[in-house]
Amino acid sequence: MFASKRPCLPAFCLGISVTLQAAFGIELNASNPPYAEGEVIIRFKDGISVTEASNILITKDLELSRHLNQPRAQDNSALPVCALVRDSNRSTAELIEALGSQENVLYVEPNYIRRPFLSPDDSDFEKLWALQNTGQTVNGTTGTSGADIGFPEAWTLSRYESESIVVGVVDTGVDITHPDLADNIWTNSGEIADNDIDDDGNGYIDDVNGYNFADESNDVSDNDGHGTHVAGTIAAVGNNTTGVIGVCYPAQILPLRIEDDAGNMYTSDLVEALEYAVALKESGVNIVAINASLGGSTASTAESEAIDAMEAAGIILCAAAGNDGEDLETTPCYPASYTQSNILSIAASNQSNGLASFSNYGADSVDLAAPGVNIYSTMPEDQLSTTSTVTIDGTSYSAAEIEYSGQTGTEGVSGTVYDCGLGYEADFPDEVADNIALIERGTLTFSTKVTNAMNAGAVAAIIYNNTNELASPISYWTLNTDADWIPAVAVTQSDGESILDSLPESGCVANYSDSSQAYQYLSGTSMATPHVTGAVALAAWNFPDESMSARIDRILDKVTTVASHSGKSVTGGILNLPDMVNSDGDSLPDWWEQDAFDSLENDDTGDSDGDGLSNLAEFIVGTDATTASQYKGIESSSYSSEGFSLNINSLEGRNYQVLWSESLETDSWEILAEDLSGTGGTIEVQDPDASASSQRFYKLEVELED
Questions:
Q1: 119-380+520-578 — its CATH code?
Q2: 119 - beta bridge partners?
Q3: Model-level pTM?
């Protein structure tokens, strides 16, 4: 077997005491509260209808702002009413006092704020060590070889095809157009985009790629970068010659945005997002896990109940343990500290398998660790800096983008540069059509100048300042609206006058952001958690019929135990993908053994069907280990005047190469044919240099390929 291409290696918590006193009594400190003031989450007792609940609220001059529960596909009975209630004229404490004593109310609690767990980021790292650590140096720190999650080894043992896997990312949003994510973003087949209609009747309009619960819209874009980074670690597109690769790169990402523009994540939005995912699961979407790289210091009953609903639906919640360096046994962090069986609580490890200095831990509260330091992943493209340049007859000038300017490719747009005065309509000569306009700053707005240039047919505009300051520090260098503008850049007054003196002259305007740079290094338990979420997806990919609890056991039973993690988590270990896929350590993946033998008892060295191929060879070649007649290899050969012919009995889904040598005693083999794609039939390979009197030996190698 030669090298596999699957793949080539492919919270901050606000400090306040909130103490549960009784069923409804909560002592609230109003200074700097970790909840939305004037908002509560209320849960009515079973059997109380929405109408009855609304009537109870009316007696207190309140109304139901949002109903957080979602319909259950398998149960047509009415759900308990869990809702968000707001009143801008009353404090949270006053709302709890007013509603908590009502006979048909089960509980009332604050709408707590959750924040993403993110340690300060680092830039300019060169290696993606978490998936394959060879002891390389990253940011001045030399790692320990093998201190990784075993990604290449696991994928060498993984299935080629499986059913669709969906993973929810409840976070700051996701850049769904990122070139390394776009192909793996979940699409709602029941929804028609941008028709302002709830086509699938789930209560959410145009939720084609998930939903934004913070803004109650279908805009799931990432205004922070945290969620996009998490999504890339889970399921960035693999083997596409672009950027990074996700732990389970065939999985689909379901964006569940819960962060508002102020950076807050409210319990109400989190609860609704989790309920939304549960409803999708029960409608047939194969959601196997939700990543929650976020948390707060206070428990929420509504949040806990939403996780109960996930548990009943068979969805695993992967939750970050937090970045305060605290013991969760004494300083809980939620949702990681809830006790439901479907929660995996994750600490962060470093490049040498140690516990990251910032990571929370807990002998009974944290399940395992995963890489969370210097993690390289996707970032939103709109956070990229723009490169702007002007080149005139081979001379380059520094330039600055004018806000909302059109973009070019890295090669820019070229043409002859013409003087267009102050940019009045009459200032543009006929020759500027399909060429570049040079415009002086003054009198007219920038948008008017560029509009006139576009109407004259210019392909780009250069506006030179009335000082020697570049435009980028000046906030009012803008075209005002995000429209279909031509590239428009600014240069200094002296550079503009120098260009003016040389006209007419050929020039080039470049204004671009390089999508290949849309990646960044971040550290935190937020970065550790998606490695485990990806592992859950990988377990589901390889073992689609296993239960949620079996997937959790697969992950927790096969960690890499590390002495320094003893007493810091339930397992005392770090995520281990290969052993998760191959639990008995015999070089054969569990899924293949179960498919072939209905058990894990047949090891890799045996030859169960007696055809001369070991079970390991059968797995590599892709044949049935219980049927001798399914042998795949060099089936026959013949010699003619055209040379020597080999007939290879191939299998679809495998790649082959044929090598030759004049002696079996040498390690020197030369390639005769490579990149042969299996067809399920016979492939003929010719060796035109072979003669009837020559002695040659041939070797067939099989490559595991997606």
A1: 3.40.50.200
A2: 523
A3: 0.80
